[in-house]
Design goal:
Layout (H helix, E strand, L loop, with lengths): L15 E11 L2 E13 L6 E9 L5 E11 L4 E7 L4 E10 L2 E11 L6 E11 L2 E10 L5 E10 L2
Antiparallel strand pairs: 1-2, 1-10, 2-3, 3-4, 4-5, 5-6, 6-7, 7-8, 8-9, 9-10
């Protein structure tokens, strides 16, 4: 495996595969529970690759997935570029402080068939051995509000 690029050192706490569970809410849908798996990997370049998959907690059927890249910046900021099979692409910027990443969208684009998403906010933080993830969004004409939260444990 390639050596971690020095620019990625602030993101090293994320590296590996994590698995756990979460819950989701939004005014336009029914509340739901899900199983989640995320992977953070590197290839020695100045970015960390991110892949996420969720399944319905009851049926095991796929719910959502997304993939992208965390791009650390020299001043402690970080960028996240990601794509979703629903036709939505997000560009977010934020900060890394210790083991806590907070991001807000600078652009959210969608295909003609995608549901309208105007803005997103994401947070990833590790407390002890638990990776926490939360997402808020402004979608379907609504103001930004909580959407999903999960807790995951490192597999590798």
């Amino acid at each position: 495996m390639a050596e971690l690029h020095p620019a990625c050192a602030p993101l090293a706490f994320l590296l590996g595969t994590w698995q756990g569970a979460g819950t989701g809410v939004y005014p336009t849908i029914e509340d739901f529970s899900y199983a989640e798996e995320v992977s953070f990997t590197h290839v020695g370049k100045p970015f960390v690759a991110y892949v996420q998959k969720t399944k319905d907690a009851g049926t095991g059927l796929p719910l959502h997935s997304e993939a992208g890249f965390l791009r650390p910046q020299p001043d402690g900021r970080v960028e996240l570029v990601l794509a979703q099979p629903s036709g939505v692409a997000e560009v977010l910027e934020g900060t890394v402080e210790g083991r806590d990443i907070q991001l807000s969208s600078t652009a959210v684009l969608g295909t003609d068939s995608a549901k309208p998403v105007a803005a997103t906010e994401r947070r990833l933080w590790v407390d002890g051995e638990v990776l926490h993830s939360s997402v808020a969004m402004a979608a379907m004409g609504l103001e930004i509000q909580h959407h999903v939260v999960s807790e995951m444990y490192r597999l590798s």
